[in-house]
Each structure stands twice: as C-alpha cells, then as structure tokens.
Amino acid sequence: MTHDEIYAKVKVVLVDALGVDDEEITPSAVIRDDLGAESIDFLDIMFRLEKAFGIKIPKGELMPENVANDPAYVENGVVKPAGIAMLKEKMPHSNFTEFEKDPKVESMSKLFTVEAIVKYVEGKLK
Amino acid sequence: MRWIWIDKFIEFTPRTSAVALKNCSLAEEHLHDLYPDFPIVPHSLIVEGMAQTAGILVGEARQFKEKVILAKIGKAVFHRLVRPGDTILFKATVDQLNEQGASISGRVELLDDKAHAAGIGLVAEIELMFSHIDQNISGIKFPEHNFVFTEQFTDLLANYRLSAPVTL
Fold this sequence. Notes:
Strand content of chain B: 25-35%
CATH superfamily of chain B: Hotdog Thioesterase
Number of helices of chain A: 5
Largest sheet of chain B: 6 strands, antiparallel
Helix content of chain B: 10-25%
Strand order of the largest sheet of chain A: 1-2
CATH class of chain B: Alpha Beta
Strand order of the largest sheet of chain B: 1-2-4-5-6-3
Number of domains of chain B: 1
Structural class of chain B: alpha+beta
Number of domains of chain A: 1
Strand content of chain A: under 5%
Distance between the termini of chain A: 9 Å
Number of strands of chain A: 2
CATH architecture of chain B: Roll
Radius of gyration of chain A: 14 Å
Oligomer: heterodimer
Radius of gyration of chain B: 17 Å
C-alpha cells in the first residue's frame, strides 16, 4: 500500500471517529488540538485503524500512556531529556523538531498528527 | 431505584453477541409524558437498552472485573417509533474488544413477523463504544469496587443461564 493510499484510508478513519469534515484533515493537523479529539476518541481511532488496515495495535504503541504522571520523565510540567528519549523511542513515527524546542507537557499532544498516524500504519504494514 | 431497560436475555454468546428482549408497557410512567395523546418509547431509552445489553456482553467478556462504561455513541439512526404493547429485541454484536474497551454494533428490531414482512421491523441501528475506565490512558484512579455491575445487571445474565421452564 502506498503512502497516499494509507493517508486516504486514515482520513476516512478520522472523519468517522471524530465527525470532522474531510477538508479539515491535513498531514500536519494535530489530532487533539486541531481535530478536537478527546481521550475516548483515541480508543475509537485505534479500533478503526485496526479494522481498516487489518493490524493489531498493542496498548501504548501508537501513543505512550501515563507519561505526564511519571516523575522519571516529567518535572514541573516539562518533559525531561529521559522523557524525550523515551517518547522518541516509542513514537518513531512522530516529528520531534518543534516539541524539543519547548518540551512542555501540554505540548505533547502536538506530537500526534495525522502524518504521525500514517507513518505508524506504514511501519506496521511493512 | 431500578434502572433496567431490558427484561431478559434470549441469546448470549460470550465475547461475540447477545440478544435481549424488552416488553414496552403503558404501565411505564414516562410514556405518559411522551406524548400524552400518543405515547411512544423515547429514543434515549432505546439507546439505553442497547447500552445495557451491550455493556453486559462487554462486561462478561472479562468476568465483570472491569468497570465498563458507555463512552461514545458513534451512531444512532432510528427508522420507526416503538409504541406501548410492542416487544423489541436488542441485538448487540462485538466488533472489537481488548483490555481498554470495546466497540459494538447494534440493531433494535420489533418482535413482529408481520412488521418485518412489510419491511418496517427495524427500529434502530446503534453503534456504541465502551471503555474499561480502570485502563484509561490518563492514569486516573477510580474506586476499587465495581460500581457499574450491580446485581441488577448480573442477575439478568444469571437468569438467562438458569433458564428452564417454570412449573408449579
């Protein structure tokens, strides 16, 4: 499956899960901030991705969990270098360039973009 | 207060599907308000009946150890009204089920062969998502005891499994 084919199917998943218009979905759109996803929507997106692509998404693989509450990774609302390293290892499909300039916990959601999902699925399908 | 919107299970296949039945009666007081001259079963309570059917199906999959809550109604399309005297079936099928939750496809149908023959037996198509809130990704902690599955719900399934003709 090509990158564009995966992107097209991911768009359908996001439209169905989030109730957004097709035009709102761009590669750089942040799932939470731009498309309005809430916590439960991430589970819905995961289920729909599994069904659409015939893949299995283990817990925490698409998006690491409980990072913000872990003192090993976060201090005073800032993600520590150990946390960034862990996130990079667990989310090779995300772009960390902007996040590393100002690694606040509340900015972590910006790592989860439409393109990040497409790259994750590409990796699973290889 | 009893908040049970299904009367009994008539089919139950663990981790796969379930069918529950509800007899709709004019004795249910809320029908008198909606509407006084033309009582119908509110759509919201039909969704609730489906949620209870599907919620027990999801809960049983992990032996009622998880606190299963209805998290999202993905779709609820209604094709006809339900009136007092009607019997409806809630048919729930598991689409996906894992440690974090489940997604369910549901159909609500009249128990009425004539209505089905006439093509008007389908009441609603409902898609639901359930979350096992103790497995939430935010790490929020909830009370240890399972406040979701009271005996009101677990008895429904227990009675289905015990089902035998009652003779006096």
